[in-house]
Amino acid sequence: xxxxxxxxxxxxxxxxxxxxxxxxxxxxxxxxxxxxxxxxxxxxxxxxxxxxxxxxxxxxxxxxxxxxxxxxxxxxxxxxxxxxxxxxxxxxxxxxxxxxxxxxxxxxxxxxxxxxxxxxxxxxxxxxxxxxxxxxxxxxxxxxxxxxxxxxxxxxxxxxxxxx
Length: 164
Description:
Blueprint: H1 4-9, E1 11-15, E2 21-23, E3 32-35, E4 40-42, E5 50-56, H2 61-77, E6 82-88, H3 95-102, E7 108-114, E8 126-130, E9 136-141, H4 146-158
């Protein structure tokens, strides 16, 4: 399991600018998500929410196990301020097939991310978690299980939303 202290200091391999690395504990860089239906969602629109960006692929066995777990978790915790977005890698299924898959799910499928967010170390699944305060709280390649989700997200969901 991940200790809170390591979450605050871990360096991750997501480029922010030439030669720089995003750090857990630092403000999350701007992003715009383009959902499968064409809707756009920005980082600023999600301020005050706990956001999980899950990068996955249909050919990835751990992703196929993790995605239903994330979906069920989101369905139970969305009223607490959780938002989960599934970012499909380019080498996965075409958008029309993804629409069929996500028609039975609760999390929102993302077609494209504008901003310095991508898989970490070419590994899927990759999860990036942004707290209510707009800071990166977790960023790592590897699948979540229910225990990890609870350990990481329950404390974040209990934090008050920052004043606007």
